[in-house]
Amino acid sequence: MITTEPETDPFEEHRRLLFATAYRMLGTVSDAEDIVQDAWLTWNKADRSEVRHPKAYLVRTVTNLSLNRLTSARATREEYVGPWLPEPLLTSPDVAQDRELAESVSMAMLVVLETLSPLERAVFVLREVFGFSHAEIAGFLDREEPAVRQISSRARKHVAARRPRFDTDSAERERVTDRFLTACAGGDINAVLEMLAPDVTAWSDGGGKVTAARRPLYGPDHVARWLFGVLAKPANAGVTVTTALVNGELGILAELHGTPIAVLTYDLENGLVRNLRIQVNPDKLAGLRR
Asked: Where in the numbering of this chain does the RNA polymerase sigma-70 region domain appear (predicted)?
């Protein structure tokens, strides 16, 4: 008796690509998961006999669903309480080892992508991250190829002008992260001050749900004293702090009784910490629990 292996469902085959596309488009795990679920519903309703290229069909579906979500999210973010930061994503070691992939999903890059228009962001992600041709992207977006080329060029220049150029040495990052954790755990504010760049800036995203700085913090002294003030709060007694691979880079994860309560990521330049991003909005930490 001859048996044949069941065909792989194209949706399941490309699910990781679909989530990766939606996440880079939206900067939130929860929204990306919703988009993938909506794409699955669309796929299930589709006449498969009419779908000649399932991957292109699915990417097009996710791209346009993400564009609609991103356009509506812009209005919501204008009313957001305090700084808005992307939602952190725990990543595997293989992502961290691929520098281009790690950079495309890094918190620093997601922050830069927030400065693009929704359409520019879609074109940049599809072209620069996933390598789709201008012709393919034009088909996804129902636009002429020359127009897509112009959008792509504009988005690429915009990102290049704002893209962070920081140290990528993983061993150095591990050393600095361990020193930072040790200094914080020991209450050694002087050690932390020595690790912060003179122009360090810190953003904390509480979304109005938990206590966080409503404005960016500038300078080593201000940043360090704010951090130690947070650590000294009675509510944070019993918090465990560990290193974790966050968005392709080593960061810090704080948990209380097994529940994530904060994620800290940073940029490293000449061995010093710059651009601290502290996510404490519980809604944006739900993806870590899943």
From this structure: 11-74
Beta-carbon contacts of 261 under 8 Å, excluding residues fewer than 6 positions away, are: 239, 254, 255, 280, 282, 285
Q: Is a pLDDT exceeding 90 seen at residue 263? A: yes
Q: What is the pLDDT of residue 135?
A: 96
Range of the domain at 236: 170-289
179 and 200 together in one domain: yes
Tell me which of 131, 162, 193 is where a domain ends.
Answer: 162
The DSSP-derived string for 39-95 is HHHHHHHS-GGG-S-HHHHHHHHHHHHHHHHHHHHHHHHHT-SS---PPP-B--HHH
Condensed to tens digits (0 to 9), the pLDDT of residues 113-162 reads 999 999 999 999 999 999 999 999 999 999 999 999 999 999 999 999 98
What span, in angstroms and rounded, lies between the C-alpha atoms of 193 and 286?
Answer: 31
Question: If you count them, how many residues does the chain have?
Answer: 290
83 vs 91: CA distance, rounded Å: 24
Q: What is the pLDDT of residue 185?
A: 86
Total domains present in the chain: 2
> 162, 186, 202 — which closes off a domain?
162
Task: Tell me what the mean pLDDT of segment 244-260 comes to.
Answer: 91
Contacts of 132 (CB under 8 A, 6+ apart): 59, 126, 140
Q: Report the CATH number that the domain containing residue 274 is assigned in CATH.
A: 3.10.450.50
Q: Which amino acid is at 167?
A: D
* Judgement on whether residues 97 and 203 belong to the same structural domain of the protein: no
Taking the C-alpha atoms of residue 39 and residue 56, their distance in angstroms, rounded to an integer, is 12
